[in-house]
Amino acid sequence: MSDSKKTRHSKTPHIKSVETRYLEERQSLMTGLQHLDRRSFLKVSTGAMAAAVAAGASNHFHSFLPINVAYAGEGPAGPGFTFAYISDSHLYIKKNNERFVRQLLRAVDDVNKLDPQPDFVFYGGDLAQLGRKEELDLGAQILKSVKAPLHMMVGEHDWFYDLGHHWNELFGPENYSFDHKGVHFVVLMSVHEKDFWTARGMDPAERMHTVAGLDNAMQSAFEVGAPQRDWLKKDLANISTSTPIIVFSHSPLYKLYRPWNFWTDDAEDVQSILKPYDHVTVLHGHTHQVLTNRIGNIQFHGMLSTAWPWPYAPQGLPALTVQMNRPNPFDSNDGLGDGTVTVHPDGLVDKLYNLWNRNPMQVKASYLSSGGKSDVPAAPTLASY
Amino acid sequence: MKKLLPMALILVVSALTARAQNPATPNSTPTTPATKTVKLCDNKTTVQVPADAPKTRAEGQKISDALMAQWKEANPNTGWEQGEVEAHQVIPPADNSALVGVGQSSTYGVVTQQTVQVWKNETYKTALYGSKVFHSGDELGSEIGVSCDMCHPRAANTHPETYPKFQPQLGRVAMLRDMINWCIEHPVRGKVLAADDPKMRALEAYIIAQRKGTPLDYGKR
What we know:
The complex is a heterodimer of chains A (385) and B (221).
Chain A: H1 3-11, H2 18-32, H3 38-54, E1 81-86, H4 98-113, E2 121-123, H5 133-143, E3 150-152, H6 156-159, H7 165-171, E4 176-180, E5 183-187, E6 192-193, H8 204-212, E7 222-223, H9 226-236, E8 245-249, H10 267-274, E9 280-284, E10 292-295, E11 298-301, E12 337-343, E13 349-355, E14 361-363, H11 365-369
Parallel strand pairs in A: 1-2, 2-3, 5-8, 8-9, 9-11
Antiparallel strand pairs in A: 1-12, 4-5, 6-7, 10-11, 12-13, 13-14
Helix pairs in contact in A: 2-3
Chain B: H1 6-21, E1 35-39, E2 46-50, H2 57-74, H3 80-88, H4 105-108, H5 113-134, E3 165-167, E4 172-174, H6 176-185, H7 198-210
């Protein structure tokens, strides 16, 4: 037995596999990336190097070792900050499906393990699968164990059984705004649908079931709607154009692929309200995949699901999207995950997709600002068919 | 669902037409002259109406509504195909109408418009049934409410054109049906289907229908 192996064993009372050690190192590195100033960068990268040397692999660096150093100085968003996200858990009641429950618990563990803790955790919608009271209650109960403050957004699976009644009781109004460290946050309810159920004589369960089928063509298109657009205009009336804005919407606030409702019907109207502002980021759920877009001044990022991954739409994929790997059907948690958002001093964000069972993917503000020229994320080895 | 009714309405209308053409309805019950029996063209569903009922449109509508209500109760699932077409827009099979009028010697005789329609309807119906199973955790026997469309909307990323191919995880060359069964057993948590189970045949039909026009490329990863 070599010296280096002896040292390693004496330091760790429990022998850990190479894979466990690799995952632990990766975890500590990704955690260190959350609040990256020069000092912690040195600490993180030195730590990773020391770990690599201790493992007897000085010539074996991780593929995700950061090269860039964090932004210096302050901006509208001060020195910057991070928040985490969990999205699209699609819970049934526990006795019907414990798998989706376990997967949400895994995401809650992930965000609770972040050190330092994120400023808050954002939930991206579709907590429930069929909008039932019991499903929403179960989700609310699980999310109570999130340590950081929690902000909620509604999804269509939460809404179309009772048109938001119980969700509103649990979590409050479906659209709201708040300010955090110089950034103005807006949460929209983007999954309103024009009435398709009355003419068909559908009861609430049938209405919910129709909307729950992503590819069900009987439903209408998602929309923010005129009343809420007016609310948004009023909400932004006193916000200066140099204030960074981060908008949350469940559906992407652009038109990607109508047959799956990867779509918001009045997207252009909402975009025009956001157009005067210098730095706007939209984060959305619903699409269950790594998804990146930029329209003028607005940068868009998707969120991962904890329940199941969606394939990429056959048409309409934004040119700036670098796909995540095609999920492996033999790995039940592949293509799923959660993630963190690093807000820079200027208010633009780097989006980290914490893909469970795979290397994380980071999509940087600089990638979008440069129109896809710099900081290009690694291409997938297995793209969609 | 109201969308499923046109076929049934045709039945009723034809029944009324028959009655109008032959006012002395042969189905009148001779022993009770106060009423007469109106029969639907399924030759089973009947209603009794007063023999002296006025022959107005309103009265005719009442009779047809009564027949329809009975028929719908006896045939609750009729018309599911149309619901499936509307909800999931299954891609129709090849159009063979160019063959109409062409002789096929001893097997079929001359191909007629009806022949072509039968080929199309029967094939399409299998794909439609596949769509129904594909989109229903109950049809798949899922214990956890999971159906195929949750990961494969409109059968996306099912790539039937890539089978057969070697799947190390299964330890053999997999056909499409082997992957369907893998998904039924694991992500869906249902019971695997026999290779010739009508549901398996329908699932294969639907998945292949949705990739119509894609070149075959067996073994592709």
